[in-house]
Structure formats: C-alpha cells, structure tokens
Amino acid sequence: MILSKSVFESLRWLYAPQKTAIIFAFRTLLATYIVLVIALWMEMDSPRWAIMAVWIVAQNSSRGEVLSKAYWIIVGNITGIIIALCIMGSFPQQPLLFELSVALWVAFCCWVASCTRNFRALGMVMAGYSCAIVLLSSVSDPNDTFMIAMSRGSYFILGILAENFTARLFDLNLHHQAHKKLNDDLQNAVEEGIKSVAQMLDGDDWAVAQSDQLLSFMINLNNNIEFREQEMKGTGHTGDHARAVLASVSGLLVKATGFSIHLKQIQKDVLNFHYIVPLTQSYLLKLREQLKTGAPLSETLTALNALRWECRQRIADSFYKNLGQPQATNEDYARKSLNDRILYQSLREILAELEVTLRELSKSRDFNLHDKFRFEVKSSFDFKRAWRNAIRAFFAIALGCFAWEITGWDRGYLFLAFLCMGCARFCLFENATLACLGWFKGACIAIIVGGFYNFIIMPAVSNLNLLFILMIIPLGIGALAMCVPRLAPVASTYAFFFCYMLGFANEGRVDEISFLNNSLAVFTSGVFALASYRLFFPYRARKLRRQMRMKLLRGLHQLAQASSLPLAREWVGFVSEAFVVLMRQLNEDRNTTLVKTYRHGSMAVMLIGINIIRLRHMVKHDIMTEDIKDILRVVLRRIAVFDGRRAEYAQHARTVMIAHRAITRFRQREATEKNLAVRVEVSAAISSLILISYALDKNASFLRIKKH
C-alpha cells in the first residue's frame, strides 16, 4: 500500500502536470508539427534533423533563457559548419589526419565550454558536435560536404526559429513580467539576507553558514540576470543594478559573520556597546516588513543613516571624551574602550553595506531609470577541469575512430557522430558520469519506443495529420518529463533520439534493417561514452570535495602574496561558487558533522580572504608606520605558505599563534599611540586579525588537507 502510494505520487507530473508544463508541452509539440510540415513540403532529404533541433532548444524556463540558448546554438552551429568545411578541405584523402582533427576540435570545444558560462558553453558544445556530424556524414563522398553542411545548418535554424515563433505566442507583456520577476527574486534575497543578519546579532555567529540555500539561490539568480536582460531590452541597466544588489547582499552576510565573531569574542569585555544591538534588531524587523509591503525606501534610509551616525559618534567619543582623565590611562578601561570601537566599527560597516543594498534595490525597481551604471561580475574558471574534459573527449573519440577503422562498420560514422555529441555535451556537468548515464538511459528508451512505432504504428499511417496525432503521446510524455528536474536529462535525450529513430521522410518510413543499424549505432555510442567516462578521470564526490578545498586554500595563499589584489566582491563570488559546488556534493543529512564542517570551513575561507585584502591595503598605504607594516607582512607570509598537513604544531598552528601574537602587540601599541590616524588603522588591523585567527583556529579540520 505504501509502495503503491509512493509510486503514484512520483507520477504526479504525468497525470496532474502543472500549468507551465502543459503550456511547454503544447508549444513544443506545435513547433514540432510546424517544422515537420515545412520540411516535408520543401522535400528536405532528412526532416528529422529539423525536429531534433526543436527538442534541442526546447526548455521549460524563462523566455530569456530560450532566446539565449537559441542564439548560441545558431552561433555554434555556424561555427561548426565553417570548421567542418576547413577540415574536409584540408584532409580529404588522409583518414588519420582527418580523424585526429575531428577529435582535436571536439576536445578544444570541450575545453572552451568548460571555461565559459550559461549557454555560451552550449554554443561551443554545438560547434563541436555539429562539425563532427557534418564531417562524418560526408566521409563516403567528400564532394557532398558543402551540401550536407548547408542542409544540417538549415535544419537547425528552421527548428530553432519555429520553436521561438511558437514560444512568442505565449509571451504577453514580456518585459514587464520579467522586471517584476527579477525584482521579486531580488527582494527575496535581500529579505533573507536581513534575516540572517538579525540572527547573527543574537549571537548566532555562523547563521550565514546555515544559509547555503540562500547562497545557491543568489548565484543562480546572478547567472540568470543576463536572461532577464534579454527580456527587458530597452529598460536601461536594470541588470547591472540587480548584480550590484546580489554582490552587496553577499558582502552584507560576510560582514555580519565577522561582527558575530567579534561579538562572541569580546562581548563580555566592553563598556556600553550592548544598548545599540536591540535598536538595530528593531530596525531590521521594521525594514523586512517595509520590503514585504513594497513601501518606498526613503524613510528607512533616513533611520539607517541615524544608526550609522550613532556608531560613528560613539567611536569618536571613545577617542576624545576621556582624553586627559585618569581612567583613560587605566589598562582595563583602554582594553574595553578598544573593544567598543571594534564592535561599533563592525556594526557601522554592516549598516553601510545595507544602505548600498537598499539603494541599488530601489534603482532596480525603477522601470524607467535610464542611467549609465555598469556592474560586472568576474567569474573564476577551473582550468584543471577544462583540461580533464578535453583530454577525456579526445581519447574517447580517438578510440572510437580506432574501433571504426578496425571493424569497417558501414554505420561507424553514425556511431562516431553520436559519440562526439555525447562527449561534447557531458563536459557541461560536474558529475559527467551521471549525465552520461542519463543520456544512455534516454537513448535506450528512445530505441524501444521508436522500435514500437516503426514496426507497429508507422506501417498503418497514411497521412501527416494521423502521424502527428500518434506522436502526441510519446513526445507529450517526454515534454512533461522535461519539466521535472530529476527526469529532465533522460527525457530530453529520449525526445531527441525518438525523433531520430522515426526518420520522417517523404519517401516512406525507415525500414527494419536501417532502424536496427541506427539503433545499434546509438546504443554503442552510449556504451562507449559511458565506459570512457568511467575510465578517464572518473567522477568521485570525495575527490571533487578535496579538489575544491585545495582550490580554496590555494586561493588564500595567492591572495596573501599576489602582486595584484582582487576586489572584495570578486573574492566573495569565487568562494561562494566553490561553496555551492561543495554543498551539491554533500547530499547527506543536513545536520551531519561533515556538512557543518564544510559549511563553516567555506565561510571561514571567505572571511579570511576579505580580511587579508584589508590588511594588504593597510600595508600598501602610508598611514601606518613601517614597524606595524612589518608585523602585518609576517602574518601575511605565514598565511601564504601554511598547508596544515601535520599535527598541532605544524605550519597551520604556527600561523594561528603568530596572528594571536600580532593582536597582543597591536593592542599594546594602540593604547600608547599618539597619532590618531595610526590608532584608527591599528584598531582596524586588530579587528581583521581577530577574525583571521578565529577562523583559522576553529576550522583547522577543513584547512588541513591530507595527501592521498
């Protein structure tokens, strides 16, 4: 009973689909029918490629994503066709060089695709396997290469245009809807960020580390902004303001994390700081309510500035109020006064970042704002992963060519074409083996369903209308399944190969021998791709997690010694992306010790990096004296070299010890320094060193990476 109920619930997408899924299935089927009618009417030699193009670009997502996907697929297709003509013209009678060129081109496309984002990567993938399809389809007669290239290119452009035409029929008032959706998502991110800050003011120092879903949401939203911009063309730089909002929210979370650590470390050793915390919490509560109601932000910005100036006034009073009085020379009083200044300054930075967030949010809400604001977010690339993808694709295709040369199979070109397609597409996924398995499953289902239609249904079909009616069931189920994230990889592959298996031609249906040969080519290409991805650089979650930890640790080392410093928001973005990847690999219970270790460790790396940037700016400027700069240089050198692969007294532990010693020396110096500007800088250095030492000490298990 329980089993049947669970199975029944798992099939809800089929018998009770969502409205968006129904619309997606309807418009995709309509585009398929339009393309099929046009291709048969124009008497194209292989109409199935036009239908397959529809299912390549079809996606149940925002209109901007579909437009971007279609654009880059067309660009990639044209690029692949040009390269195909060049390769065939260069090596028409040299099979070894010809096959080597195909493998190298697909491997190069995999490398570039691994170093790009969004559908630009898909465009390079398309350039790889469209080139391979054209070349391998024309090996029997190189003189037909140009005609085959033009034919395949026409099919893809026709299919993409038809899909975009039908999709536009369902887009009403697109730019206003896109603007509203974007601002709703931004407001949600800001509200969740404010909620995390409020929790950390209560002493929950790692509340942000529990918000991995918020960070994932913000990264995904940041990647999707370019699609919203396509939908909102002519509306100024709303997308740039949206990126600024997300970057500011990330900075807000990092600064709030630092404040919570300061609060935990020194809250029992202050003079009069605690009174301002309830005021700030009350303000944040009112702010969340105002955001939910959509009220103007002018009044709340006035209250925010009042809190900021209160913090600033308290810092100034701490320096000037008791100068010359006996208690000012008291060591206990001086220590507490310094702690007050550290907390006030940390809270002031949070409020300043919150003001930036609210101002950018207000500008992104203004649909009629036409300014010249620009905000670029630099992405970090994993070149090691790119090289692995390229090497894997090259050897898989080279071995496939070797097998073709040995067997002399007449459908070997088809086997290689689909192998190139698989190798190119799989480089887009973190877990390429899992993607390859989904692709193989989808191909097998397409072979079974396609066989049923070819042997049972197609012989009885007498006209195009009946054929399309009979196609509604298999393709409609595939379209609905594509709207389910866990089924999408299998469903998209199934729909693509099902269209290939049916053939669709004016001359008649696919005969049994051709169908079986085509099926064998598709099946063996899937088996070969799956085997190659298990042999060459196989995916292992534990190994990937270790690689990401090493990437973060190397980032810290480089940050402490690199000649040029990145912006703080660039560092936050770099660590956030790695953090989201790590969380995707940890599919265990959210409360396990391992997950907590990775959460806290990733946030610690982010916090350490931000404060390294601050310390290096202090060393670079001329306010501090050389003896203070020398101490900071020692700390930075220790951070640049520690590896923490040993026990308690290894380089990691010595780094923590040196940071604590620097804090002690700076506290003594701050209490006796006469120059006010130097005192302010020393106080800031103490604040940063407290955060660095705490993050290093409490996350030793994450930063100590054992050799295998």
Automatic annotation (TrEMBL):
Keywords: Membrane, Transmembrane, Transmembrane helix. InterPro entries: PHBA_efflux_AaeB/fusaric-R (IPR006726). The chain crosses the membrane at residues 20-42, 70-90, 96-114, 121-139, 145-162, 389-406, 412-429, 436-458, 464-484, 491-508, 520-541. Pfam families: FUSC. It comes from the Bacteria. This is FUSC family protein.
